[in-house]
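Here we describe the complex-level prediction in full. Unlike the single-chain runs in Section 2.1, the two entities below were treated as one system.
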Amino acid sequence: MAFPGSSDLSSDLIGGVTTERSAGATRGDDPLERRAIAAVRQGDPGAYDYLVSKYMKRVVSIAWGIVRNAHDAEDLAQEAFVRAYEHLPRFRSEEPFGPWIYRIVTNLSLDVAKHRTRFRHEELTMAEPADRRDDADLPAHRNELAARIDAAIESLPEMQRVVARLHLVEQFDHAEIARMMKLSEGTVRSHLSLARKKLRAKLADLYGENDE
Amino acid sequence: MSDDRFFEKLREDAQPLRYEPDDFMVTRITARVQERISVPTSVSGMLARWFRPLAASMAALVLAASLGLAWMERSAQTTAPSVESIAANNPVEISVAGDVYSVNNE
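The structure predicted for the assembly as a whole is:
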């Protein structure tokens, strides 16, 4: 497949961009995405804008869901895209880009969250509590129900919290979460099962008791 | 409500919890990513960028001058015949006391 000039390709790609969230296209069915990846590999960094634009919102949302801080989420999204770019030559072009960038940002965010937990623990032992979570970053349009759900998810242990958020908020299925977090599907199901029980108990007044 | 139904309903209700980056954040991230993935310009690269068009211009000038000189030499050769060729093509005849003498190379 012949490619036009790099500037033409870049404008062509950006002109036809659809965000991953709006298109719901996590599968490798986007010919523009394949063209962008091929163009970047051939030395056209401008073509990478298409991939950044397409996956940006979802990547930021995943990072924010784990670290719960807008500044950190921004830095993590940036870092994830740069790392993906640097490793693009090793990326299998027949695979969709989405799951790959989601895995990168998830792992980066988990590293930051773990580091922060350790750091916070050290601070707490020094009687200097530090809460890096920024409530001002919370989406303003959330209603009361969503706020209750958010609080319930946040109260879960870390792995259950991350898995539950990826499943409930980001709408990933078990297999996708397993790939993103380098876990088996069974482990993901186990985390979700435990999370479901705890969430059900916490939100019993909203959804009723288990009638089974 | 069954556990499965509860989780499905919870999944529907949790969708508004997605974080939506604003346009400024999107622009910032895009710009920073582009900045970081752009190949940094080295000194040699910068010199090469200046030198290439300069060298190309010089080469074009030299080529034009060479072609011009060659053409001038050739035209000078064709338009300015030597004394010998003039003498060969235009024999000089001198008349003295009724006799005609001819001057040529031989």
